[in-house]
Amino acid sequence: MISLKIDNKDVKVPEGTTILEAARKVNIDIPTLCFLKEINEVGDCRMCITEVEGRRGFATSCIQKVEEGMVVHTNSPAVIEARKMILDLILSNHHRDCLTCIRNGSCELQALATKLNMTEVRYDGVKNEHEVDDSSPSIVRDFNKCILCRRCVATCKNVQKIGAIASCERGFASCVSTVGNNSLNDVNCTFCGQCIQSCPTGALHEKDSTKQVWEKLKDPNSYVVVQTAPAVRVALGEEFGMPIGTNVTGKMVTALKRLGFDKVFDTNTGADFTIMEEGTEFLKRLKEKDNLPMITSCSPGWVKYIEMNYPENLPHLSSCKSPHEMFGAIIKTYYAAKQKINPEKIYVVSVMPCVAKKFERQRDEMKENGLYDVDAVITTRELARMIKQANIEFTELKDDIFDDPMGEATGAGAIFGVTGGVMEAALRSVYEISTGKELKQINFEEVRGQEGIKRATIKIGTEQVKVVVAHGLGNAQTIMEEIKQGKADYQFVEIMACPGGCIMGGGQPIVNSKTRATVNVREKRAKAMYTIDEKSKIRKSHENPALKQIYREFLGEPGGHLAHELLHTHYEPRKKYNI
């Protein structure tokens, strides 16, 4: 343990701790911009400088390790003045259109300028002018608002191991860009959106779809249906100041009905369909020893990744559509016929924790009878903006329930939002369907947790089924290499593009770097998802009465002809660069 003083407070921390970490342990706030715990710890921006007695110059607290007897000052006049100068220089080349910026109110640069009382920019001069890249269906890149913190670069390269963006040029021309400064739409970007989650400003954000949705809500000739993903309900409240991990399902449903949607359905029901189809497909492959291991296909960022990087492994991918696409197909066929509504008048909106779903929605493979399964995707953040725009006091809303007959879902559908959740939901149904026996222990703890790769062996009847769960594309790469090289000795694989799964998706509320460093956001949101599952009356997808009815009245058997036509698709090799 190392003893030191920070702003006259005695601190004792383990050897190897940085000044920044030591200060946070005693609730002393040192401002940061480029720092992102365990992802970008490089000390580039110098905003976290401090004074250390007996030393010349300033110490960069995010990389400077503590030493015995060290005396640190984090808020001396010299430190404050130096920080203001650094911030002044950053602001001098920044487009300061804060009032119309998508990150107004949640921007770390804006918050820091307020904290340091920046009422003027002394070094204002010539600014770099960059064209906004908005040609992708998922992500907008506006370098005019970039502060060169490189958090996005580190996330893309070190966590996801994609490297779609990088630092380019030198001096005043320095920027973060893609190969040849091409659009994200034309390079090896998977649209996972983790770069958005890392960005402290509005330089990266989701492509907004709220205008189209508002237009349809106003159109008397449109029947607008909304469905909400599992992970949205445990994060939406954060946009309204509620604690991280608060389950706001009831309030969310009430808000959606007040926005004017004709029907509010639960994508968890779509997740139950996915389990029925994917479980059936897996049992068939297991029996025939065909294209094993089978890999889940619920995460569109992951699907785009395998199409671009491991096309030889595509036969291992499940042919199932993702839950919201399945549900969209059901709404425009079964539900439309049941309610005697022309499918062409139905406009399906999916509220998703994921920006890659915007890309997935417009894939040609997601069409039936010339109609897209889903017509618009909005993120958790976009829904929050719509609620605020409608002047709805979210925290004061009473709870409501999803509409019938498509609002009934299971706890298994809920845990789709967490890494390992698809695997666990599938195992519950696969076990009982294949053995005809009831599970004594419904929770599969072996596939839960925050480890990047989780491996387990599950006994299903006489079979010892080896399974693997990976989250984050960096971990997916490890599994893909094992399969490619013929070293895979497992039968079932779940992969999610985002670290932690959908609860940490690119479209979820953005958590600032300080909170990310001091609060386990992933754990809190995951706990909320598992609590929903535990409190559900039905916790296995195959026991969902709404599903049973739809299969009986319309689809026939899981994996049957009509189910394959509506709920399954195919994937093909894709170029990394369309240049």
Fold and architecture overview:
The structure is a single chain. This protein has 579 residues and is of the alpha/beta class. It has 3 domains: 2-75, Roll (Ubiquitin-like (UB roll)), CATH 3.10.20.740; 91-206, Alpha-Beta Plaits (2-Layer Sandwich), CATH 3.30.70; 211-567, Rossmann fold (3-Layer(aba) Sandwich), CATH 3.40.50. The chain is 35% helix and 14% strand. The strands form 6 sheets. The chain has a 5-stranded mixed beta sheet with strand order 2-1-5-3-4, sandwiched between helices. The chain has a 4-stranded parallel beta sheet with strand order 11-10-13-16, with helices on both faces. Helix 8 packs across helix 10 (323-339). The termini are far apart.
Main beta-sheet strand count, sense and barrel state: 5 strands, mixed
User: What is the CATH class name of the largest domain?
Assistant: Alpha Beta
Strand content: 5-15%
CATH fold-level topology of the largest domain: Rossmann fold
- Give the uncertain stretches in residue-range form: none
Which structural class fits the helix and strand makeup? alpha/beta
**C-alpha end-to-end distance:** 54 Å
Estimate percent helicity: 25-40%
Helical stretch tally: 19
Short description:
The chain is an alpha/beta fold and 579 residues long. The chain has helices at 19-25, 77-92, 108-115, 151-159, 194-198, 210-218, 249-259, 267-288, 300-309, 323-339, 356-361, 380-389, 411-414, 421-435, 473-484, 513-518, 521-535, 545-555, 561-567, and strands at residues 2-6, 9-13, 49-52, 59-60, 71-73, 139-141, 166-168, 175-177, 204-206, 223-228, 263-266, 294-295, 346-352, 367-368, 371-372, 376-379, 453-460, 463-471, 492-496.
